[in-house]
Amino acid sequence: MNKELFGVFGDRAAFDELSGRRPFDAVLEGSTITVGVRDPDLGVAGRSAVHESDDGICAIWGEALPPDVVDPGAAEWLLDRVAQAGLDGLDLLNGSYLAV
After folding, report:
1. 26 beta partners
2. Does residue 99 carry a pLDDT above 70?
3. Upstream peptide bond of 72 is cis (omega within 30 degrees of 0)
4. Distance CA 44, CA 63 (A)
């Protein structure tokens, strides 16, 4: 399996320099962090997910199950939840995952 989560505290130039320009299924650029996700299950319900909006970015790598949520995806749900509840927003997301 070719699954990978890679990130840097910095912009896309720093990310490209340190990642060796490996191909990723998604690359998200935030104000202080850039993260790449490679996962053939990206976008499959309950699996790795990414979301970016004017409110920020969120990447979840692994298995993540928000309560009673199919659409929007887990990354959008988590970004909204953390905006509302801070780090306590992680308390309802079940699974085995890493989140940025």
Report:
1. 37
2. yes
3. yes
4. 10
pTM: 0.87
Smallest CA-to-CA distance from 49 within 31, 35, 68 is with 35
- Phi/psi region, residue 10 (left: phi>0; alpha: psi -120 to 50; beta: rest), is left
Contact 53, 17 (CB under 8 A): no
- CB count, 10 Å around CB of 49? 29
Chain position carrying tokens 């890679």: 6
Q: Estimate to the nearest angstrom the gap between the alpha carbon of 99 and the chain centroid.
A: 6
Reported as a single tens digit per residue, the pLDDT across 15-55 is 999 998 789 999 999 999 999 999 998 988 888 999 999 98
Which amino acid appears at position 29 of this protein? Answer: E
